[in-house]
Design goal:
This protein is an alpha+beta fold. It is 15% helix and 32% strand.
Length: 322
């Protein structure tokens, strides 16, 4: 077990700001858990499988970022769990009641802790008190060892180590109403909009410090999970991750490239269910004592700065009937 200590109390400067600090866990189902094991093991995550449940973890970090269960039918987002500091829970609960946001029964795959709310897109959202698992500082790049003169800087293919993501950065969801979804996270849970592009896409960060976005929504004809994004330590790791997945037989994806909103370097690998897992490096960070100025960007300036052509099915939501 890692010795990493996760923060459990809010900064004094944010005493009067009440909002969740972390996307604590995303939960979805797939038709075959063995397939999920093979995919995420190749991706470089640390897996824990018990009684039909597959937990997604990362090297050196104590947190479970996601959980997958087996169920018939297509892959399906089941619920999200957010965590807040104990000092914020009552204020969030009172705000939820003031806004008349409907509460719901705990999801059958979850527990009865905290608040259970019904998202406007029709899936449950849980809010619990818990330690801050989202980044407390901007991710530190891996600094390569100095290369002696006359020595090549790149390792031979046979010596390249497996890429292991360090933590979850964010998830991007599909939504039939991006504005309504953003309003839910902003008004009820206290997240703040970082950037957006019309009603096509929106990115939200946490008020106690997080990456440029810990959750985002893209317009679709229904809800669903588009991708989970995982932090790595260098652009070389992004490229190595791409090669790692190609070698494992996962040949569909997008990248390597660089985003505009968030600024991170990326490679997306398509999973067996039509969604994606992203290797991400050097995403923008919003400190807990800083108020980011959000902006609405034209579509041509909101997606990526450079990279290969976007695959035709990249924004297809496979969780809803075609």
């Amino acid at each position: 077990m890692t010795g990493l200590q996760l923060r459990t109390r809010k900064d004094a400067g944010r005493a009067n700001v009440h909002g969740v600090h972390s996307l604590d866990c995303f939960v979805f189902t797939v038709p075959d858990l063995d397939v999920a094991v093979r995919f995420y093991d190749a991706f470089g995550l640390q897996l824990r499988r018990t009684n039909g449940q597959l937990d997604l973890r990362t090297c050196g970090h104590p947190h479970t970022w996601g959980s997958i269960f087996q169920a018939p039918g297509p892959k399906k987002l089941q619920y999200l769990r957010f965590a807040c500091f104990a000092e914020d829970f009552d204020a969030i609960a009172a705000r939820v009641d003031e806004l008349k946001i409907p509460r719901c029964a705990p999801h059958p795959l979850g527990n009865d802790e905290g608040l259970w709310l019904m998202h406007p897109d029709g899936f449950p959202v849980q809010v619990v008190v818990g330690p801050k698992s989202m980044a407390d500082v901007r991710s530190t790049p891996i600094v390569p060892e100095p290369v002696p003169v006359g020595t090549g800087a790149s390792l031979a293919r046979s010596r390249i180590p497996k890429v292991h993501p360090r933590r979850l950065s964010h998830v991007l969801l599909f939504s039939p109403d991006v504005k309504a979804a953003a309003d839910f996270y902003e008004k009820a849970l206290g997240l703040r909009v970082s950037d957006s592009s019309a009603d096509i896409i929106v990115f939200l960060h946490g008020v106690h410090g997080s990456d440029h976005h810990l959750i985002a929504m893209a317009k679709s004809n229904g809800p669903g999970l588009h991708h989970s994004s995982w932090d790595v330590g260098s652009i070389d790791d992004v490229g190595r991750g791409m090669e790692q997945m190609l070698t494992a037989g996962h040949t569909q994806g997008w990248g390597v490239g660089r985003h505009v909103l968030g600024s991170n370097y990326f490679y997306y690998v398509r999973d067996p269910w039509g969604s994606y897992a992203e290797y991400s490096f050097d995403i923008d960070y919003v400190p807990g004592d800083f108020d980011w100025t959000s902006a609405d960007h034209p579509p041509e300036d909101s997606f990526y700065a450079w990279g290969p052509k976007v695959p035709e099915e990249f924004v297809t939501n496979h969780e809803v009937p075609g």
